[in-house]
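Incident log, entry 3
Record: 3-dehydrosphinganine reductase (335 residues)
Problem: checksum mismatch between cached and fresh output.
Input:
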Amino acid sequence: MECECHWLSRLFGVTLVIITSWLYIRRKKLTSSIPYSHVLITGGSSGIGKATAKEVLKRGTSLVTLWARNKGKLEDAREEIIKETGGRVNIFSVDVTGGLSGIHNVFEETIRDGGDLRMVIHCAGSSMAGTIEDTSIEDYNCMMNINYFGTVNVTKVVLPHLKKENKEIPSRITLISSIAGVMGLYGFTAYSASKFALRGFAESLEMEVRPHGISVTLNLPPDTDTPSFAEENKSKPLETKLLSETAGLFQPETVAKGIVDDTLNGVFLSSVGLDGWLIRCITCGMSPVSFGTMFLQTFCVGPLRFVSWCYTIYFARTVAKCFAKRLKRSCSSAF
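Fresh output:
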């Protein structure tokens, strides 16, 4: 009994350190207004992109330009954003998975209509869930095209412009990955792979553009209450639903606030919530961080490895239980 109490006290101490460290990092973050007059957001017609557009306008941006494929949804989003914020919103219908020449033409029009552009937030993306047997090669290609190549295409087009601008105020590039972009989950062989690719792209890009005074942020949002998430849940495997629920469901406004905060402060790996911070810390690898964050991670990664191991045990048991139930139903239906 005494040994058990001693173990529990240690676990409590570790938990206290983790929570205190997380709160310290959050408290140190600035929430300053945006010093840019023009911000470009891809995938801005709904979900996180639309919420981020509202957030940057509330922070003082004069103009937000939204890119998305569906012109009707863009018009609805512009009307909603203007009504709520009173800000200026330009919209352009563009397929970020299309050819670079088409994207370049739209970007030139974006600059011509909106002027100087210093902040680009890549929210264009899609999600799907299913086992590898239920996922076609076309589905894998689709996830890579939208989530990875779409981001690469836009970055290649906008980067020369960002490099030419005044470096006194650094330009910002923000990529939206996912918690599933740093850890694999059941049912996400297509989605996770496309989001993992963004991690390598972002780390390499950050090294290339830092000398030009450009900062890169890679955001890892959790499950977010958006129309696309609701649609995805209709066909999501039970295992995927149960595992995803451990991090909770966040509102897009909360996620958008975290994206803008971390983008303005030049944070490379960005997340929302305590679970998000835990995963970001344990998967930090060799990502660029501030000295303070590095110091905290040095002391927290060891204990957090145990916490993450507990998560993997829970995940494995959840998958095993679902498999057993499915097998039992299959056997029952055979008779």
